[in-house]
Amino acid sequence: MNRLTLSLTTLLAAVLACSTAAPQPTPEEALFATREATPIPLVTEQPPTETPVPTATSEADSAETPTAAPEAETDPAPDEPGEAPAPTQPPEEEARANLFANPGFEGSHEPRASDPVTGARIQEMWQPQGWTTYFCPGCTALNAGAGNPPDMTTGRPEVTWTISAADGGSGRNFEGASVHFFLTGWVYFSGVAQVVETTPGQTYTVGAWVRSDCGESFDEEAYRIVLADDTDVGRSNCRWQIKVEPFGESANTSYADPDVRVLGDFGYEHGTYGQYAFIQASYTAESDRTTVYFEHRIVYPMLHTDGWIDNALFE
Known about the structure:
The protein is of the alpha+beta class. The chain contains 4 helices and 14 strands. The protein has helices spanning about 1-20, 25-35, 55-65, 230-235, and strands at about 110-115, 120-130, 130-135, 160, 180, 190-195, 205-215, 215-220, 225, 240-245, 260-265, 275-285, 290-300, 305-315.
């Protein structure tokens, strides 16, 4: 009896304790309560990794503030502070210079000595510094017996120089002073020549700016020769040739030496009538000296047979 009473009393006390104690949380509530008690760090609170994934924003920022290049990739410092590195030398073929002396025919001109023995000078044939003026006296004319009389021979032209109209010249110069050949009413072969130092086996470009005004009349109002460019005879009359003598023995004439050869023949079809045109040819040197000739050649007699040359080139 006493044990039963004690058990009932104990049970009643337990029921009363349950009715007055705080309600127990559900499993879900217990889970959330655990999370609140032990908070999980947010992503933003994590320390950054060593290699963050790049974003568009980070690329733009890096473009605005470029990262300095590693020291090993920078150019080596110049030999002395404040000096730029020495430029790379261009290839040899790009560094070649014009080998002609006075290629523009500038400076003083002097009469040509026609006879090296007597020293007699031809006052009407001048030559610029560094060049030899030459002509072929009494040579058989081109087309002799075939359009020209069979006994026709060449005459001696006058050779002078032309400057700009602003400087008191005719204005038919190309640039600065230009050499001028002319002979009224007759045929001639005449030119300028120079010996240059060359390297055997090396190929050179030879050229010059030339012009021919050939015709039978002169327009006083326009102050120019009326070009004979409307017939085959007129178009074939005024020619230019580039010649070489491969051993550089003499620049006196291009006719006395059988080794002289023609590199190119030029005329109306190359745009030389009434205007300047650049004529050129290639030449492979055979020795350490070469004579170069630029020659104006008149085929048929005409009242006006003028030719000009300027800015020669040998490179």
